[in-house]
Amino acid sequence: MENKSFDLNSMDAIIENFLTHIKSGQSIKDGDLPNIDLYMDQVTTFMDRWLASSKRYDTDKILTKTMINNYAKNHLLPPPEKKKYSKDHMYLLLFIYYFKNILSINDIQKLLTPLTDRYFQSTEGLSLADIYSQIQSVTNEQTQRLEKDIRLMSSEAASLFSDQSEDEAEYLRLFSTISLLSLDVYIKKQLIEKLIDQFPFPEKEDKKH
To answer: What InterPro entries does its record include (predicted)?
Structure first.
């Protein structure tokens, strides 16, 4: 097995490159979405093109036909109209994409159902476009806060294990950085689940469980 060269400079470079990447704005803005309804192939092509930078591996799939069908089957996504997906479908698919690595399908369904019931293709009052745009409007500030948090965690991890050999310290500092980042994700995930569990979401009439 090849022994890859990895030191603290490598880790710092990876972190800096990542922070530059997230600051460059990888999220899809409302104005980026097509103003016409799309067939499924067009939906998957659009998502794959715009979210390609979030892939871990080149072979990863952002969105597939099977995924879309499963989302509809699990009531995360309303069915298409004449095999076409509207802009509102796209908003929901983006929310699902951001949620799915953190939340269970049941939690996503619970969270999205009121949104879909009240605002999907709404012609009066608040729309899904309004909601998506307002959330997007504060992402720059949120990204700046996350950048500061990541730098602080990296700095704290770099100060540890100074009494160890260079090789040992490099691995232990990497492990510490990942541990601190993981703790941050773990705590936030728990809070998200608590909020979902405590909010009085309306019960479905067709309860079968």
So the answer is: DNA-bd_dom_put_sf (IPR009061), DUF1836 (IPR014975)
Two tokens at 54?
A: 């979030």
Q: Which residues of the chain have pLDDT under 70?
A: 1-8, 25-26, 204-209
Q: Determine the pLDDT at residue 80.
A: 96
Burial class (CB in 10 A: 0-12, 13-18, 19+), 105: middle
Three-state SS sequence of the chain: CCCCCCCHHHHHHHHHHHHHHHHCCCCCCHHHCCCCCEEHHHHHHHHHHHCHHHCCCCCCCCCCHHHHHHHHHCCCCCCCECCEECHHHHHHHHHHHHHCCCCCHHHHHHHHHHHHHHHCCCCCCCCHHHHHHHHHHCHHHHHHHHHHHHHHHHHHHHCCCCCCCHHHHHHHHHHHHHHHHHHHHHHHHHHHHHHHHHCCCCCCCCCCC
pTM: 0.86
Distance CA 43, CA 34 (A): 10
Amino acid making up residue 93: L
Indicate the pairing of strand 84-85 with strand 38-39: antiparallel
- Identify the pLDDT of residue 140: 82
As beta bridge partners, residue 81 has 84
| Six token digits for residue 152 | 């602080």
